[in-house]
Hints:
By secondary structure, this protein is of the alpha/beta class.
Amino acid sequence: MDDLQITSAETKALLESGEDVLLVDVREPWETHICRIAGAVLIPMGSIPANLQKLDVDGDVICYCHHGVRSLDVAVWLRGQGVERARSMSGGIDQWSAEIDPGVPRY
């Protein structure tokens, strides 16, 4: 599982590549009211098991949260469920804001 994490820069490049990528925000709904990454699908961490069928896709599944802790747990769990291309964006949306899009508010 050496490839379990992906940087925000790598995520941006993958999203712009036109490849099949599902970006999953595993934060809580109140957090998305503060900031979000355009195009991401909100599936809070606690709802992931009930939504597994939505995440069993052929392309990459990149999960993110605030700082990367919850999304790493989700990516590990998804891998265990057979979602082989599940990864966690290291540093979460906070790192995304710092490195990719300073217009995304930090909290």
